[in-house]
Amino acid sequence: MSYEIARDIARWSHEIGRQIGCLVGRDGTIEMVLVGDASSVYIPELPKSREGNRRLRGLRLIHTHLNMEPLTQDDFMDLIFLRLDCVAAVGVDKHGGANQLHVCHIFPSEDAQWVVLPPRPCFNVNINFIELVKSIEEELRRFRSSIRADGTKDAAILVVVLDRQMYDIDAHIMEMKELARAAGISIVDTVIQKVRKVNPRYLIGKGKLSEVMVRALQHGVDLLIFDRELNPSQVKALTDTTELRVIDRTQLILDIFAQRARSREGKIQVEMAQLRYLMPRLNVKDDALSRLTGGIGARGPGETKLEVDRRRIKKRLSHLEKELKNIRKNRYERRRKRKKQGMPIISIIGYTNAGKSTLLNALTKSEVPVANQFFATLDPTSRRLRFPKDFEVIITDTVGFISNLPRELVDAFAATLEELHDADILLHVVDISNPRFDDHIESVHKILKQLELDKKPELLVFNKMDLVPSYYAVDIAKRFGGVCVSALERSTLKPLIARLEEHVEMVCFYDKVSA
Known about the structure:
- By secondary structure, the chain is an alpha/beta fold.
- It folds into 3 domains: about 5-145, no CATH class; about 155-245, Rossmann fold (3-Layer(aba) Sandwich); about 335-515, P-loop containing nucleotide triphosphate hydrolases (Rossmann fold), CATH 3.40.50.300.
- It contains 15 helices and 17 strands.
- It has helices at about 5-15, 75-80, 130-145, 170-180, 205-220, 230-240, 250-260, 265-280, 305-340, 355-365, 405-410, 415-420, 435-450, 470-480, 495-515, and strands at about 20-25, 30-35, 60-65, 85-90, 100-105, 115, 120, 155-160, 185-195, 225, 245, 345-350, 380-385, 390-395, 425-430, 460-465, 485.
- The strands form 3 sheets. Strands 1, 2, 3, 4, 5, 6 and 7 form a 7-stranded mixed β-sheet that branches. A 6-stranded mixed β-sheet has the order 13-14-12-15-16-17, sandwiched between helices.
- Helix 4 (about 170-180) packs parallel to helix 7.
- It is elongated.
- The model is unreliable at about 285-300 (pLDDT under 50).
């Protein structure tokens, strides 16, 4: 900025008693002139920035401050939220002269969000601006390369909002990271905000949101994951303000299910869950109210695009429900045949990644696919198990549970969980190596109650005993009345098989006596 420009905008600003600003491109072209009030200038909505959020916008804001005050919080927020190359304020003295120039720019590291350069006289700015911006972007590139994602398809920043007392924040964050990993997303940074009252617009405060945006720019990511459910207006406000993709915990779980579903039934259930989640989140602001779909002779304004979208979703849901009903009918027939054979049914349940599929493989010598990640199993799998006392049972693996299971998934997976209603015994697998295993037990019991399955006979199995001291595993099993095993070591399964035999005989004997 030349001194002549600084002098002119200072004089004009002094004469009209308002701030004057301009947005200038890197080639020196003035893209926009702004006239504000005595204390601020308003910047209208700008076009989407070049290359998304990975680079600065390529614009710098130069504006006047009528009382020679330094840069304000509003200036810093404009710098961050608009991803400007820099913000500069020309101090106007009482005679209308251009006094000092204050400049700030984004800081390409985790130590700070921005840097304020020392004030300098407007007649001798002495800043090689293009070189400064190039060095900032080069530093951003170097910083990103040092924290590259670990081979996953996407990188994201996790935003954790604490508006109540949480005893184990680290465990909560770790679970969110595991969910992200299961979806093929690498969490490169975590931002935590403790709030007394949740911000209804952004969920988090504007200051914390600016920190999130700077970190997104520093890490070169375009995805934010929130640890709780966002309402439709919050998603829109966050997306519009940050120009980043925004998803919440429910959407993350739905994405995992969509990737993992293999059977026709599983795919239908996932699609139904996604449609139910999407329905209230359709854009409530329809900018095309006059868009007609009725054709020649149609009366009235016809249907808006929003109404068409909703009608299509309802129609698709109705079609999927019919298809699912037929699948349920076939499943019911298969279960009825099984019951006719008089074989007891054991259903394996438990928190996700507790080792249910691994235990099924160990008990039945099967080769059901397993993975050390959340929701590796979605579709139910049944195998036969022969006990030493020479009788057989059917043992079924089911989808893993999780705390605060999205209601869309509980509804959509009702058909899969129907298997549990036919079970004679629930084999509840618990990862004893997880420090929050008792919370996981409680979460599973809460979902069982929701499904009216809490009266079923249950045997607790504490898996992964090889990862904890033996005395600890034995003590926990005794306290809960369960059995401790390691699904990876078949030698540890004998006590479990003996207990299962007892339970099956007891249940069968009770049924015969009742009959």
